[in-house]
Amino acid sequence: MGLDMRPLGKPKPGFENRFKQIMHIIQGKEKQELSFFDKLKGKKVLSKEELLEEWFENQIQSYETIKAPRVGYDQIANDWIRERYNESDKELSEEDFLKEYNGFYVIELSKEPDAVPIYRAMGQDENVFRGQFLSDCVDVIGEDLVNEAWDTKFADEALDYGNRLMEKALKIARENNLEYLKNEKYPPENADETSIESKLHIAFSLAKWLIFYGKNGHGYEADF
């Protein structure tokens, strides 16, 4: 399967501490504890399903943060879904097809350049970074920085990781006169997959992705 890095939702204002607490409980890093007075009031330990329901109800999804256009609300998204309809087998009428996708966020149309990676995970949302590509970069950025990608992180941790990854990539780029790669959206055309150019581009792309989401309050889930 390999590693996919999926942006987490960010906690709504006032829910920051509880957001982390619930995640730690689900991960088994923290136990639910009820005080004597909680028990007197009849409070009970929440099930995993109840915890997840509370967690999801109190977060802002990444596609909202990146201002992804929405079908039924934004013309650019409406045009996009009509193109998809024209490419379909047209089993449904256009009206029913549009109704089915009403409210759908078209992530790939976001105007945030660092939010939607080139190195995408197949079958996932378009803003999920295919972290497995980083495993090819050990000889460039080092084993420790590569392995760290496999750890789910909160926003502050993702930002810190992105900054350290960027610092390392810039150092190697300067030594090889390849700093221009930092601002390149697409991989170098004529570079081999095993070249330092290709590996640095992966590192820069992930660093920018991490920094964007970390700065905007989103961590990521390491799914592998």
Span between termini: 6 Å
Shape: flat
Q: pLDDT under 50 segments (min length 5)?
A: none
The ordered string of helix (H) and strand (E) elements is: EEHHHEHHHHHHHE
Mean pLDDT: 94
Count, helices: 10
Count of discrete domains? 1
Relative helix content:
40-55%
Strand content: 5-15%
**Number of distinct beta strands:** 4
Class inferred from helices and paired strands: mainly alpha
Work out the radius of gyration. 21 Å
Major β-sheet annotation? 2 strands, antiparallel
Strand order of the largest sheet: 1-4
Question: What does the model show?
Answer:
There is one protein chain. The protein has 224 residues and is mainly α. It has one domain (4-59, 115-223). It is built from ten helices and four strands; from the N terminus they run ββαααβαααααααβ. The chain has helices at residues 16-27, 36-40, 48-57, 62-65, 75-87, 94-100, 138-141, 143-147, 155-175, 196-215; strands at residues 4-7, 10-11, 59-60, 220-223. A two-stranded antiparallel ribbon has the order 1-4. Strands 2-3 form a two-stranded antiparallel sheet. α1 packs antiparallel against α3 (48-57) and α9 runs antiparallel to α10.
Write the layout of secondary structure elements.
Blueprint: E1 4-7, E2 10-11, H1 16-27, H2 36-40, H3 48-57, E3 59-60, H4 62-65, H5 75-87, H6 94-100, H7 138-141, H8 143-147, H9 155-175, H10 196-215, E4 220-223
Antiparallel strand pairs: 1-4, 2-3
Task: Describe the structure concisely for a colleague.
By secondary structure, the protein is mainly α. It has 10 helices and 4 strands, in the order ββαααβαααααααβ.
